[in-house]
Amino acid sequence: MSTVIEQFIAHFVAERKKLGLTQANAAEKCGVSLKMWGNYERGEHVPTGEVLLKFQEAGANVAQMFAFNQAQQLHKQYIADSDLADLIHAYEIGDESEKKALTTLAGLIIKNKKN
Predict the structure, then answer these.
(1) So where are the chain's domains?
(2) Cβ(54)–Cβ(29) under 8 Å?
(3) N or C: more exposed end of the chain, with fewer CB within 10 A?
(4) Are 33 and 96 within 8 A, CB to CB?
């Protein structure tokens, strides 16, 4: 399973748990069977847009599930929270060339850590 899918599943499960829902509760609120919900959480099926909209209506932050940043996840343990906030802020306020530079540097760090 790819890292992107694993991260999506982790966020998907975390949102359900944050809402205090069991898999059965979440499945019911989203109009799917418990078996299908389990398939989503194991990465065997992908929830449809309709399911995600119903999950959002139940209180899930669906946008957050898609807004994960792989570099942030991989390096969170190495960067102090204030430094991470500064890094994210720099990206948010940077122009296109500055964003590209930060993204390129992050890619190099990730590639180096994988080796």
Answers:
(1) 3-66, 70-114
(2) yes
(3) C
(4) no
* pLDDT tens, per residue, the chain with 115 residues: 667 788 888 889 999 999 999 999 999 999 999 999 999 999 999 899 999 999 999 999 888 777 665 445 555 555 556 677 788 888 889 899 988 888 888 888 888 877 6
**How far apart are the C-alpha atoms of 74 and 30, rounded to whole Å?**
31
Phi, psi of 59 (to 5 degrees): 115, -5
List the structure tokens of 112: 């180096």
Question: Token pair for residue 99?
Answer: 């964003």
CATH superfamily placement of domain 3-66: lambda repressor-like DNA-binding domains (1.10.260.40)
Between CA 103 and CA 108 the distance in angstroms is 9
pTM of the prediction? 0.58
